[in-house]
């Protein structure tokens, strides 16, 4: 018996007869306006927003106000005071603090502020606003390149049939190379990628992506069949509970994007096997639980990785998980009740 989800003949109108005769089935060609109209409207909206954000200055960044200047001077004084602090690493170890860490009070900026200054002092990560040092040609040419790759991402099979990951990688490499070209031609300031790129999240994301590719390759060895059989159950609520539990645990161990990619096909196959006409509730449960579970650990999603990379001196893996376990449990309970 065919599933109602795919039982086409059952839901056809009386006058809609399926036939293989090409003469009786004229193909109506969709108009170009209907096909590309929404995308062109989106492009026009993005252009309008960018033009509005440029404002009446025409892209010229205004000077800092007196308030911002005072904030900048105060931050420099705090940074100087922190760098003059002596580090007693033996005392830090006795209270469980890692070597080189120093907790500041809220008035002094807190631990995140100190870690940011320490990174800046050690040239591990430096953020300096140099937008005013670009020439008009440099600003507009970078905008054109960015917009071009944005169009490529919107239509991946139109100009560059290499897929969205390849287009994103090519765009990133192009911007880095063009940034160096602007520096050499005098249209941009000095560029030191080591000081402006945080490497820890990139390394971890690269490793997690390799893990995802490996898991996808294991489909040939029957991994997905075993996963589908372990999640299968004749009772709907038990099947939903298994999917939600496995996606929550998996997204806490591996990045949530990987879990969604791996589990989506399994969930759809289970819906077809049990003749479930609407698989959207199961997919929504997968999406919500994977996002909730990813908040438990620092490796669950890129946002957590970025936070930890800026404060890794003071946040361990277990400390991060222990602080997030109660919110994750509460969110899981609320999500289960709503589902």
Main β-sheet, in a few words? none
Radius of gyration: 27 Å
State the assembly state of the protein chains: single chain
Low-pLDDT sequence parts: 1-18, 98-114, 120-126
Strand content: under 5%
- Using the alpha-carbon principal axes, give the shape: globular
Helix-strand string:
HHHHHHHHHHHHHH
- Portion in helices: 55-70%
Number of E-state strands = 0
Please report the number of helical segments: 14
The termini sit apart by 29 Å
Mean pLDDT: 70
Protein name: Citrate transporter-like domain-containing protein
Pfam family, one: CitMHS
Main location: membrane
Transmembrane segments: 35-55, 165-182, 194-215, 243-268, 280-300, 320-338
List keywords for this structure.
single chain, 339 residues, mainly alpha, 14 helices
Description of the structure:
It contains 14 helices and no strands. It is mainly alpha-helical and 339 residues long. The protein has a domain at 202-338. Helix 10 (236-253) packs parallel to helix 12, helix 11 packs antiparallel against helix 12 and helix 12 packs antiparallel against helix 14.
